[in-house]
Known about the structure:
It is a single-pass membrane protein. The chain is an alpha+beta fold and 395 residues long.
Amino acid sequence: MISVEKDSEGPQTFVVYKRTWKEAIGAFARKAFEPAGAMAPMGVRLSPLGYALIFILIGSVVLYLQVWMRGSSDKKNPKLTLGEDGDVHTMNVDISMKELLAVSIDLAQKGGDRVREIREANKLAEKSKGETKEGANDPMTDGDLQSHIAIVHGFEKAFPHLKVVSEEHEKKGDEVHTVEMPKKTHPEVDEVIKTDQRVTYEDITVWVDPLDATQEYTEDLRQYVTTMVCVAIKGKPTIGVIHKPFEHRTAWAWVGHGHSKGLNVLERKAGEGQAQKIIVSRSHAGSVEQVAKQMLGDKTEVIPAGGAGYKVLSLFEGIADAYIHVTLIKKWDICAGNALLLAMNGHMTTLGGEEINYSAEGNPKNEGGLLATLVDHQKFLEKFAPEAKKLAEKH
């Protein structure tokens, strides 16, 4: 049963009692069919038309409430939703970005805990999802799956109507009900960020990579492994979290608002005649090295590494001047790093210089190559223009 009250000084509030809609309608229908004397006075019975009118009335009321519960265009007020249990729940149509950042950090770390525990117990349960476009094995482990459950279902508990795109998928089972409610506050976030912003649900897409560098994870190359969460607003990377579970270290940033204290820019601005350092994927370091030396000179040093998250962090640590990828890469691999770079005045684009759109409705594949830098982005784009043209012709 629902009663609606109007506060003269505030927005409309809704009081939801324990009886579900199913129970209320069922009770009403049972009353309609009680024998004469129980429902109608003095032995009067309803005609078939009377029963029909009752059912029409019930249907009309249910239809009206369903439409009404979809909410109004007033985004300051909550709207009602009908849950699977038949209960009516309130839902805000916008969300606190500061809370979403805190939850993203908490879940990236919880996913990382599962990744670390499974690796240390050596219970990977590895299987193959097939081969990458380059012909390399594309493995999946229990670390990927358990991290996915911790992160994705954690978001479902904290913000049930959020759009979340994850690299992994699983059949829902009883284990998802054991996922804890994530924390909506974080000490470092509260210390660094003093303001908040509310954004409508429909504008938000969360990208999750529950275990980046799975191949290296199976080889026990732990330094490359990360868990990543990215929040995109209208397709633009806005919040990024990269967590290194084996180092218990987390880098995060909210573009235009602040970043984690450990996220520093140790830039390596290459001078004239100085060898430039390019970090690339281990799976195709040879082919990129050839291209890089053609474009940047024979002194160019190519550093092979695993994991897109690791490669982005290497730019902040001064290990490399640019992160370059010349083949297809998925957006859950790069969105968090893109947000971190934007927050620190860096750049991540296709090799053709195009910004990458992270809307949920778009293609999850980025096929235009990748260039990520903290400095000299335009110079690198100019050097790699011929390679960008080749990629464009392929796609």
